[in-house]
């Protein structure tokens, strides 16, 4: 467990993935860099780096589950997306995730 997860009040990352997978029309959003995403991401996730979030074009009716490496960028992304009317859940950081990962873009 990373120090970021220790101080987090978010549920376990794997539980967040499961919740996203079980939510109708959910979008699993990875806000890490393109390179981080290519090195390993949760299958089915969409990459939109935090510094490009202003160009996001998602249906605001679809719930968005956001993650990054440690949870810091996902928190920032969630604050930003809520401001623009998105329904978001911060599932934290992938750093300690031991589930299936996909490589490439």
TrEMBL record:
The UniProt entry, under CDD domains, shows: RHOD (cd00158)
Q: Indicate the secretion signal residues.
A: none
Any matching Pfam family: Rhodanese
Location of the Rhodanese domain:
22-103
Q: Which domain of life is it from?
A: Bacteria
What Gene3D superfamilies does the record tag this protein with? Rhodanese-like domain (3.40.250.10)
Instruction: Fetch the InterPro entries from UniProt.
Output: GlpE_sulfurtransferase (IPR050229), Rhodanese-like_dom (IPR001763), Rhodanese-like_dom_sf (IPR036873)
What name is this protein filed under?
A: Rhodanese-related sulfurtransferase
Query: Organism source for this protein?
Result: Lacrimispora sphenoides JCM 1415
The opening ranks of the lineage are:
Bacteria, Bacillati, Bacillota, Clostridia, Lachnospirales
């Amino acid at each position: 467990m990373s120090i970021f997860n220790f101080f987090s009040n978010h549920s376990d990352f794997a539980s967040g993935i499961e919740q996203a997978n079980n939510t109708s029309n959910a979008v699993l959003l990875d806000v890490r860099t393109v390179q981080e995403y290519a090195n390993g991401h949760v299958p089915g996730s969409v990459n939109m780096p935090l510094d490009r979030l202003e160009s996001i074009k998602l249906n605001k009716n679809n719930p968005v589950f956001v993650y990054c490496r440690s949870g810091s960028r996902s928190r920032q992304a969630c604050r930003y997306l809520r401001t623009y009317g998105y329904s978001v859940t911060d599932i934290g950081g992938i750093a300690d995730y031991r589930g299936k990962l996909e490589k490439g873009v």
